[in-house]
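Exercise 7. Predict the structure of BnaA05g10250D protein from Brassica napus.
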Amino acid sequence: MSMFPSFQLLELNIISAQELAPVSRKMKTYAVAWVHSQRKLTTRVDYTGGANPTWNDNRNLHLALVP
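Solution. The predicted structure, encoded as tokens:
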């Protein structure tokens, strides 16, 4: 058994966005982050921020270490 971890932890704090192009009157904005297309993280939906949404969401992603 290895004494080293088999993964690294990546911590993301997705804070906000500014001046998004309006795609509808009532925008329901969220952010998506990923390192690999199979492992995506999403924020909660901001229903009230419009073109300047705020999430301030902390997310953790475990990244496998390749030998």
